[in-house]
């Protein structure tokens, strides 16, 4: 009969912490670059220039309609042939492009939810199109896009487990090695699930706290 033995986690605790640090590092970088790409994509999709809208549409639809795992493998084994990408760099690229497509749609919806009268009022005050977007529209849109944006960030943290397929030493990769050495699958994967839960819950709590502060300031 299988007997639980969580002591094995103490033996491999340094490896688990190193894997946690790598997961956090990749996730934070991917969230940062993915958000930048999302803002750029949303501005392109709401632009009056047809070429920009077409490029943004192609990017979003391509990313959203292909599996993330395939994107990771393509960037590492495909583009990596030409640019010699390290596993971590390829992971950040893939996760940033992936999350950026979804963040593009989230921000676009937030921008378009702001009544056009807000921009017209900004124009009447002498603002340019760029000023009206960054000073009037986007600050109001941020309040509306925070919940879906938080959901996308949490999804990204969980999806980051896929980078283990290209030998990035994140939590999942470390867990696979520990299970191979100890055959303690239940204990190890339970610990990994707890790690991901804590990361996701902490981010969710932070966003809820930010929402509360914004609502209170109103």
Notes on the structure:
The chain is mostly helical. It has helices at 7-11, 13-45, 50-64, 68-83, 87-113, 116-124, 129-159, 171-182, 185-217. Helices cover 83% and strands 0% of the residues. α6 packs antiparallel against α7 (129-159). It is elongated and about 75 Å long. The relative contact order is 0.15. The mean pLDDT is 87.
- In CATH terms, the superfamily is MetI-like
Distance between the termini: 60 Å
Given helix and strand content, the structural type is: mainly alpha
Round the mean pLDDT to the nearest integer and report it: 87
Give the overall shape, derived from the CA principal axes. elongated
Helix content: over 70%
How is the biggest beta sheet arranged? none
CATH class designation = Mainly Alpha
Q: Rg to the nearest angstrom?
A: 21 Å
- Counted up, domains total 1
Q: Which segments are poorly predicted (pLDDT under 50) over 5 or more consecutive residues? A: none
Tally the helices: what do you get?
A: 9
Give the second-level CATH assignment, the architecture.
Orthogonal Bundle
Number of strands: 0
Topology:
Elements: H1 7-11, H2 13-45, H3 50-64, H4 68-83, H5 87-113, H6 116-124, H7 129-159, H8 171-182, H9 185-217
Helix pairs in contact: 2-3, 2-5, 2-8, 3-5, 4-5, 5-7, 6-7, 7-9, 8-9
Essential attributes:
single chain, 218 residues, mainly alpha, MetI-like fold
What is this structure, in a nutshell?
The protein has 218 residues and is mostly helical.
């Amino acid at each position: 009969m299988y007997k639980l033995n969580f002591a094995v986690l103490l033996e491999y605790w340094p490896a688990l912490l190193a894997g946690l640090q790598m997961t956090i590092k990749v996730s934070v970088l991917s969230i940062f670059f993915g958000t930048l790409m999302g803002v750029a994509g949303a501005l392109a999709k709401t632009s009056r220039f047809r070429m920009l809208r077409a490029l943004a549409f192609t990017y979003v639809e391509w990313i959203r309609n292909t599996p993330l795992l395939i994107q990771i493998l393509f960037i590492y084994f495909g583009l990596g042939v030409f640019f010699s990408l390290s596993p971590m760099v390829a992971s950040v690229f893939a996760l940033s492009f992936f999350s950026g497509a979804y963040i593009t749609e989230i921000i676009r919806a937030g921008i378009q939810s702001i009544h056009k009268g807000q921009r017209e009022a900004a124009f009447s005050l002498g603002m340019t199109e760029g000023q009206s977007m960054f000073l009037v529209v986007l600050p109001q849109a941020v309040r509306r896009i925070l919940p879906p944006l938080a959901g996308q960030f949490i999804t990204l943290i969980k999806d980051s487990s896929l980078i283990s397929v290209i030998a990035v030493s994140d939590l999942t990769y470390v867990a696979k090695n520990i299970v191979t050495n100890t055959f303690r699958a239940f204990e190890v994967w339970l610990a990994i699930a707890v790690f991901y839960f804590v990361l996701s819950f902490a981010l969710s709590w932070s966003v809820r706290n930010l929402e509360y502060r914004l609502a209170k300031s109103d």
